[in-house]
């Protein structure tokens, strides 16, 4: 006879055996009848958080007794604890252009092409996006914001990660006379806030957020999805859920970009999502001349393939500042952000290298909206330069924007 306990993950079994909690936040994988199962959970006075139809999964908070009952249903195939993913660590320094009287190259990279990302939407599953003037004037380009943490209707960011990356991709430089602006300064932004103010997010929220991007890809012309976080595990069940969803979103014409991770390069540094297929992984460089890998940028061999797929700049990247204490609404009505004395900042984080390639992908998709991820990958490889850190070591590619094969601005 089949042992029903095989449907429960080992860690969850241990928690239930030791009566650690009265209820558990879990992911429930079903083979069929997903909506019916969700209704049964709700009728049992347990809470359904998300129904993730594209991978037949339910995120719920349920009691140990009901978890055991769920295993008796033939349509339930597996139940595991919902775990956390983390935004990558970063350092930040505010920048005052007036006080420092410094010359800054336009966001470390110069876009001399006639393309600017217009008509292309870049999606984020991150910490939200602060409505910085460079993203909202003269056009309001944060076209959709979904908050899975505090359920606000209007966009905000109480951590910073999403805003920093948005500036690198799509800041238009209106507050700096175009001195500091993004790679695709007219692209639109779609934000799913699945991470809290500490940069932590549940896998269930993240998977649901990715499903929202998939469902809205056609309506909002989403062509690029940034996932600037890491999930440090070898949990095959969770990784299979991600892979199933990645395969579907890539088939819908969306290019996925994520960091290789922040592990030191000792044994098995490539973990979690970065080890999966159908995703472009990016590592960070603390120096371009000479090339130097960032101390907390993972690099190595995974599934017999060198990872990351590309390297990009991640040190002293100029981007948009924010007010982390901004509350976007009161009593259901929108509030407006106050004036920022320092509209820009300088950050160091491996995820900024992802934003660098997110901007490149937006330009390529504007050039040809029919490009699939495999086309984007091929074009970036064609324009890449191989970097060698030590003589005889493995070479990793970097794409300099000037080397892209795209129409240039007319003099």
UniProtKB/TrEMBL annotation:
Biological process according to GO: proteolysis
Gene3D superfamilies according to UniProt: Peptidase S8/S53 domain
PROSITE patterns per record: SUBTILASE
Recorded GO MF terms: serine-type endopeptidase activity
SUPFAM superfamilies the record matches: Subtilisin-like (SSF52743)
Residue ranges occupied by any Peptidase S8/S53 domain in the UniProt entry: 117-384
Annotated PANTHER family: PEPTIDASE S8 (PTHR43806), SERINE PROTEASE APRX (PTHR43806:SF65)
Family statement drawn from the similarity comment of this UniProt entry: Belongs to the peptidase S8 family.
Protein name, UniProt field: Subtilase family protein
């Amino acid at each position: 006879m089949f042992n029903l306990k095989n449907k429960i993950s080992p860690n969850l079994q241990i928690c239930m055996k030791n009566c650690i909690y009265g209820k558990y936040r879990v992911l429930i994988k079903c083979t069929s009848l997903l909506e019916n199962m969700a209704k049964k959970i709700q009728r049992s006075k347990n809470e359904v958080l998300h129904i993730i139809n594209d991978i037949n999964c339910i995120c719920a908070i349920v009691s140990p007794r009901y978890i055991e009952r769920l295993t008796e249903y033939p349509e339930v195939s597996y139940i595991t604890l919902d775990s956390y993913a983390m935004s990558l660590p970063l350092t930040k320094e505010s920048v005052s252009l007036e006080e420092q009287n410094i010359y800054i190259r336009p966001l470390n990279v110069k876009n001399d092409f006639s393309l600017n990302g217009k008509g292309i939407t870049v999606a984020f599953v991150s910490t939200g996006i602060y409505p910085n003037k460079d993203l909202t004037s003269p056009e309001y380009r944060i076209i959709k914001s979904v908050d899975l943490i505090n359920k606000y209707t209007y966009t905000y960011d109480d951590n910073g990660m999403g805003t920093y990356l948005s500036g690198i991709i799509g800041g238009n430089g209106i507050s700096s006379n175009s001195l500091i602006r993004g790679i695709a300064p007219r692209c639109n932004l779609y934000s799913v806030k699945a991470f809290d103010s500490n940069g932590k997010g549940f896998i269930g929220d993240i998977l649901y957020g990715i499903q929202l991007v998939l469902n809205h890809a056609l309506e909002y012309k989403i062509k690029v999805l940034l996932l600037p976080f890491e999930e440090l595990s070898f949990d095959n069940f969770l990784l299979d859920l991600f892979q199933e969803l990645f395969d579907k979103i890539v088939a819908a014409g969306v290019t996925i970009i994520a960091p290789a991770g922040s592990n030191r390069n000792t044994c098995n540094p490539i973990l979690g999502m970065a080890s999966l297929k159908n995703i472009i992984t990016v590592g960070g460089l603390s120096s371009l001349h000479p090339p130097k890998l960032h101390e907390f940028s993972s690099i190595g061999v995974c599934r017999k393939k060198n990872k990351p797929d590309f390297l990009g700049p991640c040190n002293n990247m100029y981007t948009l500042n924010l007010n982390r204490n901004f509350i976007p609404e009161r009593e259901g009505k929108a509030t407006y952000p106050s004036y920022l004395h320092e509209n820009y900042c300088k950050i160091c984080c491996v995820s900024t290298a992802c934003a660098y390639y997110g901007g490149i992908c937006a330009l390529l998709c504007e050039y040809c909206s029919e490009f699939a991820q495999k086309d984007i990958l091929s074009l970036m490889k064609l324009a890449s330069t191989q970097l060698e850190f030590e003589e005889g070591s493995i070479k990793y590619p970097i794409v300099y924007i000037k080397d892209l094969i795209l129409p240039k601005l007319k003099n």
